[in-house]
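Students often ask what a holo structure prediction actually looks like on paper. The answer is less mysterious than it sounds. You provide the chain, you provide the ligand, and the output is a string of discrete structure tokens encoding the 3D arrangement of the protein together with fe (ii) ion.
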Amino acid sequence: MTYAVRASSYCYRLGEYTVTYISRRLCLKGAVGGAVTIAGQSAAASCFDFLWTDEGPFFPSDAQILDISDLTRRHPDGPIANGNIIHVGGKIFGPECKPLSGVSVVVWQADNNGQYKTARSNNDSQLDPNFLYFGRVKTSAEGVYKFTTIMPQPYVYEGLHRARHIHFELIHPDFGRITSEMYFAGRKDDARREIDEVWQSRNTRLRQNLISNVLSRKDRVSDGVAFPVDNMPAYRFDLRICPAR
Ligand SMILES: [Fe+2]
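The corresponding structure tokens follow.
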């Protein structure tokens, strides 16, 4: 299978912010909600176009990324990071909606103060010593990934208002690296996106596909994705990668 990956430059701060990122674009489809049948299985996914996004200014170096799925503490018995703990997970699909195993899923995000752990600091708050900021897992044979983290907070960087989001990068020999991001539904987040110029600059037809689904307790174990049934909110966010058209 040939994946179309081509270099493209993207200016994060349209017309003002001078750092230009060299990223790669390919056909990335998303699956949020709906239902399809995959090889006889019901999948909580429908395959429609997803939105490729840039890495942004806070992309971590590979050395910063650890193979961890729980970003909320440094040690199993250690103190917990500030903020509201959430579960994030879903499935990564390939062409024809087949789950993709062995995909490295990297996440990076702001902490409870809207701060990233990078040299390019976006506000004056102290870093949270208990929060890990980055995580990486590989998808299972069923294409499943899961993280436990804290709800990122909105932030302002270089005058840009950013709604709450988590950055994703998917890495696999078949397609290299591709980048996307996940947002949250809700009245406050909907209002924040209205003043988020990066969000507003996204493709208007596709950007709603970047919003994750918050799961009810009864939906936490479905379609081969099992979230802990605890008091922490769980968000489902699936991605489908497809050959370029
Ligand atoms: Fe961000």
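The chain has two helices and 19 strands.
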